[in-house]
Specification:
heterodimer, A: 87 residues, mainly alpha, B: 196 residues, Four Helix Bundle (Hemerythrin (Met), subunit A), 76% helix, disordered N terminus
Chain lengths: 87, 196
């Protein structure tokens, strides 16, 4: 396996572990502020890994890449706000 | 006389991977999905009990398996792009085939999930939660199908020898679209199936 493939495999493994953790939270029925914050942090991390290493935008110098990162940050922040006002 | 040191060589690439036109499409898709997600989250804020109650009936196992399938298919697509950059055409076609196969399993599981909801008599008008669940997941499902068509077309062109290490923009274009489909599901699964 080449270096780039090895890096992608490592990112894939992290994504799988975070997905299994998300599933476990749902299976056990956990909820509340702490869990929502952890899930939003998990979405941010998984999303940024996909953006940086699967889409390959970590290596891109074009400012357009910030549209995707900005989209993820905005969506996560506003979802957090919507959950916050429902408490 | 002063000498100016050469700046360090810039790393990486200047442009987005693939054809820029696909990125305009991706930005538009992300905007639409983003609005959809926020509509769900803010609608839930006004109907917390209803959303929490009906979320329990969703098939989280299938949702989690589908997440793993999309993540894995995205990894396969990365392998395909890396392969074509090495001029390994056969390897590129093989990884794209694995990605399309993973997408097909995702689509099959999603259809099973939709069929189960349909058998339960659940429709868009059952309640607000199901309206969001069905429309969001179906909208995403259509993007998975579109992504499979794009990846298949890229694989066929790669097989015909249309791509190489020097010319692989088409592979990167299809890959970028597929990663967008994955990225959107990464938000959708926890939001609709888990978070309460």
């Amino acid at each position: 396996m080449q270096g780039a493939d090895r890096k992608a495999a490592f990112v894939w493994l992290i994504l799988v572990l975070l997905t299994l953790a998300t599933y476990a939270v749902g299976r056990l029925g956990y909820g509340g502020v702490t869990v929502v914050v952890m899930l939003l942090a998990s979405i941010s991390l998984k999303g940024q890994l996909i953006i940086d290493y699967f889409m390959g935008l970590a290596q891109v110098r074009s400012r357009w890449k910030w549209v995707v990162t900005g989209w993820l940050a905005s969506v996560v922040a506003l979802i957090g706000m919507a959950y916050w006002i429902s408490i | 006389m002063e000498t100016v040191a050469n700046p360090p060589a810039a790393t990486g690439r200047q442009d987005l991977p693939g054809d820029f036109a696909i990125w305009i499409f991706i930005f538009a898709e992300l905007l639409v999905f983003g609005i959809f997600f926020l509509a769900y989250a803010f609608a839930r804020a006004g109907n917390v009990e209803l959303f929490n109650e009906y979320q329990q009936y969703l098939d989280r196992e299938t949702g989690a398996i589908n997440t793993l399938l999309l993540i894995t298919s995205s990894f396969f697509v990365v392998r395909a792009v890396n392969a074509i950059k090495r001029n390994a055409v056969a390897s590129c076609v093989r990884w794209l085939g694995f990605a399309v196969l993973s997408g097909a399993v995702f689509a099959g599981l999603k259809l099973t999930e939709f069929a189960a909801r349909h058998a339960d008599g659940i429709t868009l008008s059952t309640n607000t939660f199901y309206m969001f669940y069905l429309s969001l997941t179906f909208f995403h499902f259509m993007h998975v199908l579109m992504g499979m068509v794009i990846l298949t077309a890229v694989a066929v062109k790669a097989h015909r020898g249309d791509y190489s290490a020097a010319n692989h923009t088409g592979v990167e274009t299809g890959a970028s679209y597929w990663h967008m489909v994955d990225l959107v599901w990464i938000v959708l699964f926890p939001l609709v199936y888990v978070m309460h």
